[in-house]
Fold this protein.
Amino acid sequence: MDPDYSAQDVARCDLCKTAIAQSYCDFCHVNLCKPCIGEHISPDYGKHIIVSIHQRKSTLIYPKCETHENKTCKYQCKDCNSFLCSRCLASKQHNQEHEFLELEEVFSSKKEHIKGDTKELENQILPAYEEIANELEMQITSLDGEYKKLTTEMSKQREKIHKEIDNAFDQMEKDIGEIKVKHHSILQKHLDEIKQLQSLMKQTLFALNEMEESNEVSSTILYSSKIEEFSKLPPKVNISIPKFIPKQMKRKELCSLIGKLTPLSTKLEERVFTAKKPNKSVRELLDEPEVLNTIKTGYEYLRSVTCLNEEHIWTSGKIAVIKCFNSQSVLQKTIRKKSGDWPDDIAVHRDGALLYSDLKTSTVYMVKNDQTEKIIRLQGWEPKNLCATSSGDLLVTMFSDDETQSKVVRYSGSIVKQTIQFDDKGQPLYSGSDMKYISENRNLDICVADWKAGAVVVVNQAGKLRFRYTGHPSSTKNKPFKPNGITTDSQSRILTADHYNHCIHILDTDGQFLRYIDNCDLEYPWGLCVDSNDSLFVCEYSKGNVKIIRYLKKIRL
């Protein structure tokens, strides 16, 4: 549709600027109201082409002939690629063996070609570039998380090397202690020998003193001198104390001991554009959605439902118990939370592990093989709602402790890969607090049902705002639009629960309203999920039921 004329923007006369235009000059390209037509065509009536406003730009404007004055060219020489008027053809000045084409036919053919190029550019090539741009933006936003992993791995190696170094120094200190004991033992042995000789010399000296005072002949005559024996001094003990000789190491040698950091590698890989073939299996909306089954969960207040298939449908409500049912309403498993508080939300990882958020402990837990572990522990923020993505990441909506800010954070394990909080103008994307159910669309858009703001907020994979949906005007849906649960299906449609109006809104991938699901006797719908077969699971908050609804039909093209 021409941007100058639509039901919302009525074309105005280009002369008087006020009246509605009913006509159009196909020669001058101006909108005209009836009173202004005479003023416009006067005095050169002959050159103007007045048509209805709806037929504007329908008159072809042919090129002027460069040879014959006041003649227009309506033919083209295919061989010379030149424009010809009727006099050019009649004059036989042009090579008659050449092929001549009517410009009207060439124009129509080119128009069709232009339409085809426009369609391919809009529907194929431009989306391919947008996908590439989104991929690059996502890589940029995930750099912090990826390099955080790198430094974490290096920190682990640092701790390991420090531990080994400490062990080596401890061993050296132990060796020094043992050498010291040996050194002490040698010196002590020599000291003991000298003290023994000193004691013997003192005994000899005492005997000599007595003999000097004695008059006994025999003892004096039998005396044998020990001076020669005592004058042989004991050898001097020289023991050198061990020395510590530090090994001189250069930084490169140290780096080689620590590990190796591979250089940044850049490689350009050629992309080949391939036009996407239309999906041969398209699921269209049913005129009348139908309830396939109702699971009575036993919760007084049911808040969340999530599943990978019909055999494992996880549910949670306002008690500290998470229940798993199959589509036949049979209870399969029960998990009891240790904190005693109810989970704020649940999600299922692609490998089947259950995830749940706990506002009381500011923690997100994973339950796998009956073992529960903490995977995310927040400070200053409270985790709220969860979405396990197709890539294996986890999206978490959270709000600050003072309940003034909200954001979406993407995790790979426990590592932050991406934070989504503000738009391009630095304004908050989400309201300050309360629940914000979240889902990843098949086109990798991130869809958040912002209950407090009364809006569905959708950003692309890189976190750029795509649109906000604030409800659809309806004479029967007169309560405020307060979306709770949100999910997406195989056709990238977005479904969100309108709690107070007892219905589900279905939107297309660009946020355009398609229809309501309001004929299934829904009462206060809350959490939503869609399984791989596009069956819709809806939590009825106060009834404690999960309704399984078929809302799509399959057709073959």
Summary: Confidence is low (pLDDT under 50) at residues 1-8.
